[in-house]
Specification:
Subcellular location: Cell inner membrane; Cell membrane
Keywords: Amino-acid transport, Cell membrane, Membrane, Transmembrane, Transmembrane helix, Transport
Protein name: Amino acid ABC transporter permease
Number of strands: 0
Radius of gyration: 21 Å
Family: Belongs to the binding-protein-dependent transport system permease family. HisMQ subfamily.
Membrane topology: Multi-pass membrane protein
Helix content: over 70%
CATH topology: MetI-like fold
Distance between the termini: 67 Å
Structural class: mainly alpha
Order of helices and strands: HHHHHHHHH
Number of helices: 9
């Protein structure tokens, strides 16, 4: 075992890492969108919309991600809905984490004092402006640490997509270990790469959390602080 061997093994693993990052960023972006939509559906005044959102959340949280990936990739293919492993993996991760983020967003919004809603209504501030200027900045500060934890879980859970033949980092490691019989070295490298990616993401969220704590960092933060005194 020497540096040349490690460098040789790193080539396919780094290629797999590119797919892992692609899965992470695409799923994270879509999961935030799904989470926000579902969150507002849960807070809707219409019972049917609230019930549908709650049903989706309960089904997703009540079944394993692995089962969901198999259902999307293999199950839907039986009824003619065929998609690539990457698309199926992205969809599975999006739906899974979107459900968890919906509850996280809901808890963040509901953590805002009701007096701020009343004060903004009294001042004639429209709903969208109220969300952008008052509610979301404060809610984001409240949930940001938990959001970072979900990001770490997402990039690690992307390894499950290996079961539907996506050549991401874990799948690349499995194939390399099977062809070289160097399981200890290969999986040590795989673990090191995951650790590096998680460390970078963790650092980015720590920096973001620190910036969000700076008064006036978010447009309207000073305004929201005024409402908190209302």
């Amino acid at each position: 075992m020497d540096f040349d061997t490690i460098r040789l093994y790193l080539t396919p693993l780094l290629e797999g890492s590119v797919w892992t990052l692609a899965l992470f960023f695409s799923s994270a972006f879509l999961a935030v969108a799904v989470g926000l939509i579902t969150c507002f559906a849960r807070l809707s005044s219409r019972r049917a919309i609230r019930t549908a959102a709650k049903f989706y959340i309960e089904v997703i949280r009540g079944t394993p991600l692995l089962v969901q990936l198999f259902f999307i990739y293999y199950g839907l293919a039986e009824v003619g809905i065929v998609m690539s492993g990457f698309v199926a993996g992205t969809l599975g991760l999006t739906l899974n984490f979107g459900a968890y983020l919906a509850e996280l967003f809901r808890s963040g919004i509901q953590s805002i004092d009701s007096g701020q809603y009343e004060a903004s209504r009294a001042l004639g501030i429209r709903t969208l402006q109220r969300l952008r200027v008052i509610i979301i900045p404060q809610a984001l500060r409240n949930i940001f640490p938990a959001l970072g934890n979900y990001a770490l879980v997402l990039i690690k859970d992307s390894s499950l997509v290996a079961v539907i033949s996506v050549s991401e980092l874990m799948r690349s490691g499995e194939m390399l270990a099977a062809s070289t019989f160097q399981s200890l070295l290969v999986y040590t490298l795989v673990g090191a790469i995951y650790f590096l990616m998680c460390s970078v993401i963790s650092y980015a969220f720590r920096r973001g959390e620190k910036n969000l704590s700076i008064p006036g960092y978010w447009d309207g933060a000073s305004e929201s602080s005024d409402f908190s005194k209302a």
